[in-house]
Amino acid sequence: MNRVALGLLLFGLFMLVLAGCPGPQTPTGPVSPPATPETSPSAEGQQLSGEITLWTIWNSEPRRSALEDVVEGFETSNPGIKVKVSNIEPDAYKTKIRVALGSDAPPDIFFVWSGEKMLRNFVRGGNCLDLTRYLDENEGAWRSRIIASSLGPYVYEGKTYGVPYLMQCTFFFYNKDIFAAHELEIPTTWDGLTQVCQKLKDANVTPIALGNLEMWPAHHLPCVLFQRLMGHEAVMAQYDPLGPGEYSDPGWLTGLRMFDEFQKSGFFNPSPNGLSRADARALFFGEKAAMFYTGTWDFAQLTSRGEAPSTFWDKWDFFNFPSVEGGKGEPDGLAGSPDGYVVSSKTSNPAAAVAFLKFLTSTTVANEFVGKCRELVQVNGAVDENNASWYLRKYAETVQAAPVISPWTDTMMEGSVAKELMNGVQAMLAGQSSAAQVLEAVRQRQAQVKKDMQATSAAVASDEQ
Length: 465
What we know:
This protein is an alpha/beta fold. It folds into two domains: 233 residues, D-Maltodextrin-Binding Protein, domain 2; 166 residues, D-Maltodextrin-Binding Protein, domain 2, CATH 3.40.190. The chain is 46% helix and 14% strand. The chain is built from 18 helices and eleven strands. Strands 1, 2, 3, 6, 7, 8, 9, 10 and 11 form a nine-stranded mixed beta sheet that branches. Strands 4-5 form a two-stranded antiparallel sheet. It is globular and about 70 Å long. It starts with a helix and ends with a helix.
């Protein structure tokens, strides 16, 4: 993590926190076009026209309305362009976008998670437009607006194929009143966390709300255990489908076993595989569970204009995943990744698509998005003293101090390997599989993927000769 780059963005914010600032002001209505030339349609300044399509996972409030305002502002400043938006539920999106990219008419702009499972896979498939020249034109004016450390995950083999927008990380969210009532301290170690959970369970309080109907939420816990046990660089090397990819380090099995022992201790609500993330979130803000391991995307749901009742808005806080005694990894590392947008290599209107992304990542638009959505937008100057909630300020400081931000396992593994892991974690929750069986299935799937990819690469090289 480039703490210097992010530090420049957050220096003023940090000073503000020390001084204590008033609550955020939340603008409403369409985004005002910036008064600077940073969002001009193109380097040549020609008038743009036509329709572009945008696919996004921003399907719930407040993101949905915030994006509508961005589109309205863009169309006002570019009257010849219309933007047709499709807001798709995140889990359904993962399948729909792959189908669309295999067609002759994919969306002009589409959301991606950085990492192997989506961005890199799409780039290798020739689906993403190289944005390097657009970012570098005008002496790198566009590139300089985006936080460099977050732009890095969108670089593949020296070329930049997308722009990050939101930095998302996962934390333990907890109910302050429940912790106080049971005289519990914030755990800083894995053993400390298990002790807290045991005390809550003994008091007939569900320690952690978990909804794993979507399959990926539960795997986030062993994901961080892997990093804590082995370290960021070690796990990243194994995630590469053409890298070592053998998952032979004992830390992989240890992490899965630690998770299995944890869940067998009864620290989650009953039947987590039958509950959705929304169900688990409702258990948490309904004060039926003391903790909820989730991402910063849920900030908006637990504060004003979100799902949680006003009586809960000030009852929660969050803490980082605890360290693991004897682990080789970074004990204060964060689990997370920037997500953002790419332009289709098949777009018939690249100038308009790029113009929209420039508008979206302009300082004025990003600043207003932060105010509406309470999220950490990866644009320099996006967060200031007028738009940052207390939770966002704390999160921003945590990101600034993090020695490393390690991406989630399911975004970094090859897609079918990640699915094998998530299936296995779900099976462990159901009591149908052991940690050793899950890891063996992952290893076998990864070995086959590596073999297939190497064969494909050899065939391509032979054809080129």
